TrEMBL record:
Its cofactor is FAD. Its EC number is 1.18.1.6. InterPro entries: FAD/NAD-bd_sf, FAD/NAD-binding_dom, Ferredox_Rdtase, Ferredox_Rdtase_adrenod. One of its GO terms (molecular function) is oxidoreductase activity. The lineage of its organism: Eukaryota, Fungi, Dikarya, Ascomycota, Pezizomycotina. This is NADPH:adrenodoxin oxidoreductase, mitochondrial. FAD binds at residues 52, 73, 81, 117, 423, 430-432. NADP(+) binds at residues 198-201, 242-243, 254, 430. It is an enzyme of class 1 (oxidoreductase). It catalyses: 2 reduced [adrenodoxin] + NADP(+) + H(+) = 2 oxidized [adrenodoxin] + NADPH.
Length: 466
């Protein structure tokens, strides 16, 4: 079904600026020709159309009179990971799209899809706008483009053996993300799957592998993914973590769903990694550990499929075999040891011992990663490649380190008119509720700066290196 934003495009396709956006070919030239009068309203560009961008826009639109918001997205459709990162059997998580539709229906909001900022497009209908050109036409630019890449393990075999997949790409594949449609996932000969990671995405992938195919048919999963999963022979899923259950980032909802899968058993885990007296734990941890200790609704001895938490295993080497040397067949792990097993922040060290798990197919789910946009360095925006975030003050104001020639040191200064929200601000962590609160924090910073007369971008002062 066409979302209301797309329907709104259809209704507004006689407006010159919007129609050029839809065609995706003449938009950048039209943008370069535009100009702003001194008494023009506050204009903000949002780069990215996920929850962080929408909630920040909502906050600003509710508090700054006359604000105009343009939201840019490289895909033809909005909503980011809400659309392409939520498992098909979790439709309730996508309910926030109704709020985003409401925001987008406001007359002072325009969604501009199929337009990349800095990155070249992949088709003749895709438009690219250079960052420095975009910034000439707005008072503020908000970066809320999320994390488009996933972290690698960096171990032998990862890039040379087939059968090793990114969980991020798999999630995009079963949700219909265009860039993931070509994923070559063969489960017809795979009985043992290994999911490396202990977050909710890892459990989503595990659940999709084990879920009854008739249940998946009632979801909005893509036809191609449904066909592949219907041919799956996967009977056992190992969810592997470098640390233990107390350090895992998955939440109780995802664990409960796995425990309740029909005819799927949970194999006993290493009980020594969890306190004997669960009552001593904080409430959230206590409830989660109780679910793990209780186990699955179906006893693993009688289940036709099973899953396990394989803790304290750090991936070391992906291995093929003699019959198929170019395809993954097993994974070698270093066995690790926790300094304090019950401490959620416990460090881990190698024991010098190793173990091998059969791995007919492997899914890597060790985190997402944001990347810098082309043009950041040229206009003075500093990006922390290690953390995958834009340098900021924690409230959403983009900052940079500048040399102080008089004092002989360096200090942080605010980059006027430039803000960030979501994963590109904090790193890839948090759920939609926490993203909303964080976006409101950034929105409040923008509102405060504008209403208090702070420095912003404008057509005559767009070079933020000044």
């Amino acid at each position: 079904m066409m979302c209301s934003i797309a329907r709104r495009f259809r209704r507004l396709d006689t407006v010159p600026r919007v129609s050029s956006v839809i065609s995706g070919r003449c938009f950048s030239s039209a943008l370069q020709q535009s100009s702003r009068s001194p008494d023009a309203p506050f204009r903000m560009a949002v780069v990215g159309s996920g929850p962080a961008g929408f909630y920040t826009a909502y906050r600003v639109m509710g508090k700054v009179p006359g604000v105009k918001v343009d939201m840019y997205e490289s895909l033809p459709v909005p909503f980011g990971l809400v659309r392409h990162g939520v498992a098909p059997d979790h439709p309730e998580v996508k309910n926030c799209q109704d709020k985003f539709d409401e925001i987008a229906s406001q007359p002072n909001f325009t969604f501009i899809g199929n337009v990349s900022i800095g990155h070249p497009g992949n088709s003749s209908k895709h438009c690219t706008i250079e960052l420095h050109n975009l910034m000439q036409h707005y008072d503020a630019v908000l970066f809320a483009y999320g994390a488009s890449e996933d972290k690698k393990l960096g171990i032998p075999g990862e890039s040379t053996l087939s059968g090793i997949h990114s969980a991020r790409e798999v999630v995009g594949w079963y949700n219909g993300l265009p860039g993931c449609s070509g994923l070559d996932l063969d489960l017809s000969q795979a009985e043992e799957a290994v999911v490396i990671g202990q977050g909710n995405v890892a459990l989503d992938v595990a659940r999709m592998l084990l879920e009854d195919i008739d249940v998946l048919r009632r979801t909005d999963i893509t036809e191609k993914a449904l066909e592949t999963l219907s041919k799956s022979r996967v009977k056992r899923v190992h969810v592997v973590g470098r640390r233990g259950p107390m350090q895992a980032s998955f939440t109780i909802k995802e664990v409960r769903e796995l425990m309740k899968l029909r005819d799927v058993g949970f194999l006993p885990f290493n009980r020594s990694l969890v306190p004997e007296d669960l009552k001593s734990l904080p409430r959230a941890s206590k409830r989660l550990m109780e679910v793990l200790v209780k186990g699955s609704s179906t006893p693993h001895e009688t289940a036709s499929k099973s899953w396990s938490l394989d803790s304290c295993f750090s991936p070391k080497h992906f291995l093929g075999n003699q019959d198929a040397p170019s395809k993954v067949a097993s994974t070698e792990f270093d066995i690790t040891e926790l300094a304090a097993p019950f401490d959620p922040k416990s460090s881990v060290k190698a024991t010098g011992k190793t173990t091998i798990l059969p791995s007919d197919v492997v899914f890597r789910s060790v985190g997402y990663k944001s990347v810098a946009l082309p043009g950041f360095a040229e206009i003075g925006i500093q990006f922390d490649d290690r953390r995958g975030v834009v340098d900021n003050d924690g409230l959403g104001r983009v900052t940079r380190m500048v040399s102080d020639t008089h004092a002989g040191g360096a200090h942080n200064e605010r980059v006027p008119g430039v803000y960030c929200a979501g994963w590109v601000k904090n790193g890839p962590t948090g759920v939609i509720a926490s993203t909303m609160q964080d976006a409101f924090t950034t929105g409040d910073a923008i509102v405060h700066d504008w209403l208090s007369g702070g420095r912003f971008l404008n057509a005559s002062n767009h070079d933020i290196r000044r």
